[in-house]
Amino acid sequence: MALLFFEILLLCSVFQLGILTSGTSLAEYEYDGPYVRFEEHNYAAAANGARVVSLNIEARGGGNILNRYKDQYYSSPCSAEDKFVVVELSKEIFVGAILIASYNDDSSHPRDLEILGSLEYPAEEWKLLGRLEAKDDIGAFQVFILPRSDHSVRYLKLRILSHHREETLCTLGTMMVYEPLIKRTRPQVFGAPFKPQQPPSPKVPPVGDTCTCKSAKELLGEEIQKILAKVESCNIWSFDRFVALLALPFFLFLFPSLVDKCGLDQGFFRGIIFSSGMLYLIMVVSKYF
């Protein structure tokens, strides 16, 4: 159980860091504020029609980054002045996320990269889509969310500006490119016009209908009537019966001379009146609440 719990914690930490294993599809990542879901279609996969159209003259195996074979990769001498790969994507897209992975443990790996895009090739001008900083991580995909762009591209140029380690060759195993499913929920997503939602208008009764409005006094009166109805529904004596019951002790209490003539104690009648009143109050409260 302890080992299983440790594995679950490890998987959760991997997803929180934004690093995916090679068998995991791209999930939901933060894209310029709100969360948007990226398509599960890799536009830089050879199986989907992507191809490498150019790479630096010193490099070998540029097309290998369009596959996911760990024993095949792009390689270039680290001393090369300009290390790059130009990929023709399977279709024109707005690039939202790029995943890269390095598999070779005996070579240098990209650190600082530059992502450029163009609608045509050869390109008269490359549009800068983003600059990435990769970790020296072997065998795991590193996810990079590019800044929002208003330019769609068909050709992607990846430039390796610096690398980890001081080896002879600099290698890159795989590159994957995704497009976000555009949600028109915020202004200027890829140049799309933003139309704010109008607040719902208050419902107005049709002409001829009357609105029954009650004053606070009327509402208070209704609430008092409800309370009195609940009290009357209680199975206890009403107030007039209670007064009739205490009439004789109260009368004798008012005329102490009669009490003295009868030879009775005045405090006795005072206790009867007080006890009866408290008993009646307790009965009302207990029945109502």
TrEMBL record:
Cell compartments where the protein resides: Endomembrane system
Looking at the record, the residues that make up the SUN domain are 23-182
Entry keywords, A to Z: Membrane, Signal, Transmembrane, Transmembrane helix
Q: Which InterPro entries does the record associate with it? A: Galactose-bd-like_sf (IPR008979), Suco/Slp1-like (IPR045120), SUN_dom (IPR012919)
Q: Does the keyword Transmembrane apply?
A: yes
**Xref: PANTHER family:** MEMBRANE PROTEIN CH1 RELATED, SUN DOMAIN-CONTAINING OSSIFICATION FACTOR
Q: What is this protein called?
A: SUN domain-containing protein
